[in-house]
Design a protein that fits this description.
Layout lengths: L1 H70 L2 E2 L8 E2 L3 H8 L2 H31 L6 H13 L2 H11 L6 H8 L14 H26 L3 H9 L4 H12 L1 H16 L3 H6 L11 H11 L3 H29 L3
Antiparallel strand pairs: 1-2
Helix pairs in contact: 2-13, 3-7, 3-10, 4-7, 7-10, 10-13, 12-13
Length: 326
């Protein structure tokens, strides 16, 4: 009897163990299904938010690039119903012309001078702001104001300043016994006039960004350097500027792109003249498309600009990997 009872108990125990195992498997399987449903819900939620934005980016950013690549191999004048494919003729026409290499060189001079001078003066201005002198906040506001002004407003201000007969520049030159040059109508001065305007426009932004970077440097580091006998120039060269490397890299990228894309000031002040002396790559692209209706040539020039910007950006990122430490 006892033997039969023990067998029954053993079978009952085995049955309970099998049920517990089956329940555990069902629980695990159910947990996996719940986790899978949650992941699917997360994916669907992400898609619901991301896909509309990605669609807008594709339509208004990537598709125009694809269309521009196609147009660069065609000839079209905005009037013809269909663009005619001409292969590489637009690119050949650009590089075989005497004017386009000059446009490229002029654009590189514009970019290098504007970026370098803006960064140097912006850093100097930021170091001055960091001294926390009286009235610094008001000066910061005035310095940053040109960055938020429209190109039309900036052009109007500087056209008045550069007026050789009634402008403020006349007073400066007369103080030295000289006459003011015809800034915007003399092909020897026009490009430099626009460079001055571009530097003035971007200086406040660069100074404020540099100021933020300087304020992030621990005061203890500079204090330790002063205790060790480091002068202001040594602190700037050995400590402040290296610690500002990420900020400088950001500014070089943004200011380079901004200088390449400069258009509004050129359009308002010189219209690419005189004698095309202020025709940079951005103005050349506009002029070929909308003034000369050479859409294919304009598209080819814009693709060259795209490649140049990409090459410069890649080189800058290669440099930052070696020299910039966050």
């Amino acid at each position: 009897m006892s033997s039969g009872a023990s067998d029954l108990d053993a079978r009952s125990a085995l049955s309970d163990g099998a049920r517990r195992t089956a329940d555990a498997r069902r629980t695990t399987s159910e947990g996996r299904r719940v986790a899978a449903r949650r992941r699917l819900h997360g994916y669907l939620l992400f898609a619901a938010f991301a896909l509309p934005n990605l669609a807008l980016i594709a339509v208004f950013a990537y598709w125009p690039i694809v269309e521009n690549v196609y147009l660069s191999f065609t000839t079209w004048d905005f009037i013809s119903l269909k663009a005619e494919v001409v292969g590489l003729l637009n690119y050949q026409a650009l590089f075989s012309s005497w004017s386009f290499p000059q446009v490229l060189l002029r654009t590189l001079v514009w970019v290098v001078v504007v970026v370098v001078v803006t960064l140097v003066l912006g850093l100097a201005l930021a170091l001055l702001f960091a001294q926390r002198l009286r009235g610094t906040t008001a000066v910061q506001t005035l310095a940053f104001a040109p960055h938020v002004l429209s190109g039309a407003a900036i052009a109007t201000i500087w056209l008045f300043i550069f007026d050789p007969n009634h402008g403020l520049s006349r007073l400066v030159f007369e103080a030295f016994g000289a006459s003011s040059p015809a800034w915007t109508t003399d092909d020897s001065w026009a490009l430099w006039a626009l460079i001055i305007v571009s530097i003035w426009k971007g200086l406040g932004f660069v100074a404020i960004v540099y100021l933020v970077g300087i304020q992030q440097i621990p005061a203890e580091v500079l204090e330790a350097a002063r205790i060790d006998g480091a002068g202001r120039w040594t602190q700037l060269r050995r400590m402040i500027f290296p610690l500002l490397a990420p900020t400088t890299f950001f500014l070089v990228i943004t200011q380079t792109i901004s200088a390449f894309q400069a258009f509004d000031v050129i359009a308002m002040m010189t219209n690419g003249g005189p004698a095309r002396s202020t025709t940079t790559l951005s103005w050349f692209i506009y002029d070929e498309a909308f003034n000369r209706t050479n859409v294919g040539v304009s598209s080819a020039a814009s693709m060259i600009m795209f490649v140049v910007l990409m090459a410069i950006t890649v080189l800058q990122f290669r440099f930052v990997e070696r020299r910039v430490h966050y």
